[in-house]
Amino acid sequence: MLPLALAIIEDDPEVRFLLSHYLDQQPGMRCVLVCESSEDFLAELSNSLPPDVVLLDLGLPGLSGLDTLPLIKERLPQAEVIVQTMFDDLDRIYLALSRGASGYLLKNLPLAEVQQAIRDVAAGGGTFSPAVARRVLNHFKPVAATHPNSLSAREQQVLEAIVDGLADKEIAQRLELRPETVRSYVKTVYRKLHVSGRIELLSRAARGLL
């Protein structure tokens, strides 16, 4: 059986070296492409063996990991992509999964568990760091309706604009406010409604829990 072909896109040179050096030593694995940016990866892809699994850092300079995900899936539809990041907020998790990621790992995960995650997705499974899995599960647990009675009139207007799908700049235009003022209201709305961001707020709204 051919070894799993791996690609690593990671801008931190120490992390990049540790990952590539460790994974290259594992039985049945081979790093075929190791890049510091998405731009380098996309440019060098045609000169490399196609990877079976791509380890993708989200916090890349230039083209971000989230923006790179659909490009990888377009160029390599059969490849599995595992996101590696320090961020565990629901917005990034949701966007990564909706753009084709098969796994979401935090960077504090031991290398042995990264190796197992690669094998899991290559076998057709999905993989999450325990903290990420818990956050996702908690998001989908039944919750009591959160009535926005504690919101001021202006905060209620901001909430309605968010539910209408408006971005902060568009909310500022609708309500004739400065963008920084809108951002402050948005944070207050999230805090009062006990949500982590737009994705969770819109999910609750869709389930009638606001």
From TrEMBL:
One Pfam family in the UniProt entry: Response_reg
InterPro entries found in the cross-reference section: CheY-like_superfamily, NreC/VraR/RcsB-like_REC, Sig_transdc_resp-reg_C-effctor, Sig_transdc_resp-reg_receiver, Tscrpt_reg_LuxR_C, WalR-like
UniProtKB keywords: DNA-binding, Phosphoprotein
Protein name per Swiss-Prot or TrEMBL: Response regulator transcription factor
Domain HTH luxR-type: 144-209
Response regulatory domain span: 5-122
A GO BP entry: phosphorelay signal transduction system
Annotated positions of the 4-aspartylphosphate modification: 57
GO molecular function, one term: DNA binding
